[in-house]
Specification:
By secondary structure, the chain is mainly alpha-helical. It has 9 helices and 2 strands; from the N terminus they run H-E-H-H-H-H-E-H-H-H-H. The protein has a two-stranded antiparallel ribbon with strand order 1-2.
Length: about 200
């Protein structure tokens, strides 16, 4: 599954991902940035960055709390994860999803707030337990992400669970990007906990 291997032009850690978010050009007329603009900066050939984008957006303060955002990000995760399972070499994303936009001002504010936590996280991640980020491990991550995506729409009415989903997606993306299997294991645990809270909220 070569599509999960970061290329030379792809971000290598969380802070570099935020740099790509910040580089996304806004529409001068509307002052907004589209999801397509962000993905053009991040790249669409590898699973890890495409997983990190919805994870970070859902997790970002202000941005992730906008009604409907978790559901849209869930759709992106579902599309990408399913295509990975079918061994897609290039990930297709529908135009209506690429055209979803957010205020550049709000995005920049959220990015500035996230810089320090991102640097802290980047100092902790490193290659270890790499079997969890290769082969069958990648398939397991994709299946976990599908489960998260399917549960994200109802998460909008269960407090804090969407943030848990965003954190799990971010951890999965980072684990694949850095080959950190320990981070992947923690993300699996967080996924189970988040899904349990969602189920409990509707039980």
């Amino acid at each position: 599954m070569s599509q999960t291997t970061a290329g030379d032009d792809e971000p290598r850690n969380l802070e570099q991902m935020l740099d790509r978010f910040a580089r996304a050009e806004r529409d001068e007329r509307t002052g907004k940035v589209t999801l397509g603009d962000v993905l053009n900066e991040v790249g669409r050939r590898s699973f890890a960055p495409l997983l990190l984008v919805p994870g970070i957006i859902t997790l970002l303060p202000v941005v992730g709390d906008i009604p409907g955002v978790p559901t849209l990000m869930a759709l992106l995760v579902l599309l990408v994860a399913v295509q990975l399972l079918f061994r897609a070499q290039h990930f297709w994303i529908p135009r209506f999803l690429l055209q979803r936009s957010i205020s550049k001002e709000k995005l920049d504010k959220a990015i500035r707030w996230s810089r320090r936590p991102a640097r802290f996280v980047d100092n902790l991640i490193k290659p270890r337990l790499t079997f969890l980020t290769q082969g069958a491990g990648i398939v397991a991550v994709a299946l976990a992400c599908i489960a998260i995506a399917l549960a994200m729409p109802p998460m909008e009415v269960v407090p804090f669970t969407a943030n848990g989903a965003g954190l799990a997606l971010t951890m999965f993306g980072l684990s694949l990007m850095s080959h950190d299997g320990l981070l992947a294991a923690l993300a699996f645990t967080l996924t189970l906990a988040t899904l349990f809270f969602v189920y409990s909220g509707f039980a």
